[in-house]
Amino acid sequence: MRHQTTAVDRPPAVAYMDAATVACNAPSILNTQPWRWRVRPDGLDLVADRSRQLVAGDPQGRQMVLSCGAALHHARIELAADGWATQVTRLPAANDPDLLATLMVNGRAPVTMEALRLAYATRIRHTDRRPVSERPIPDVALQAIAAAARAEGNLHVLTSENVADLGSAACRAAAVEAGDAQIAAELTYWTGRARLSGTGLPAGVLPDHPTQTTVPSRDFGRPGTLPVGAGHDWAAVYALLFGDGDDPRDWLRAGEALSAAWLTATTIGMSVVPLSGVVEVAGTWHTLRRLLANLGHPYLALRLGIADPEQHGRPPRTPRLPLAQVVDTSAMPAPHPLTARGPK
């Protein structure tokens, strides 16, 4: 594990580059990685890259901004693990809606074991779409994940009756999206060989046949090559990320909550799978809103569980774009001490 030097030894400019590098490990919708980081001597800018937005499946940009929020939280965790206090300004420029956040260090701070554990989790976090084991989630684990999410946003854990409603909604959403030629074409692009190199979902991370789960996994339009056993998800817990509003600031905070929950889950050996299809269809989005008693706006459904040891190891990691395509250091004086390193 890195972080053997502290912020005392490392200038902020190096810390910003490291934070941007680690942030590129964050989860994103269909692994589109719709972000761009601008490294400045005095800060770090997070910019949405609309060239990798899902135009058909995510026309509002909700999932794009949520993905960028996860990257923002990853960057915050990296700086905390390096001993920096940080200041975040979200949506700082009214005339630039693609500038989602600026991140600056604000002096030094003690490095906690929790920050180090979460920073390590940014390097090993992954998505396993296979059914989870039949071991129930310990209450203390579920409470830790929920608390991490609620420190950044809102998380509602569903009852068994609500899970049945979520499953029905997911089935309806899948049927609607299967009949939409534009969405089908988008899925084909991001899961096929024609996708932008370093992005998307290769066959090795997609199940080789539909999983037998209460809430169906997303239908990507083609089978993958990831072997799936005969397990079910009887012990899985489902939850909704939600907020009071439905605008980019809310989506950004939801992404930070997603990252916080997922990294915490990773540190305690738990599996997290995001279920985005059910929020992309207007009718099923309203179903989820009713599960929140119409008091919140749903952004994403999550499946939580303990990975099944009979699944024979982790699936492969999804690819990542070269840093030169997502991290801009042109504002740094040349020559500068930053060395581009790939995500660890």
UniProtKB/TrEMBL annotation:
Q: Which positions are tagged coiled coil? A: none
- Annotated region described as Disordered, given as residue ranges: 201-220
Q: Please identify the protein, giving its name as recorded.
A: Acg family FMN-binding oxidoreductase
PANTHER family with a match to the protein in the record: NAD(P)H NITROREDUCTASE RV3131-RELATED, NADPH NITROREDUCTASE
What InterPro entries does this protein's entry cite?
Answer: Nitroreductase-like, Nitroreductase/BluB
Matches recorded under Gene3D superfamilies: NADH Oxidase
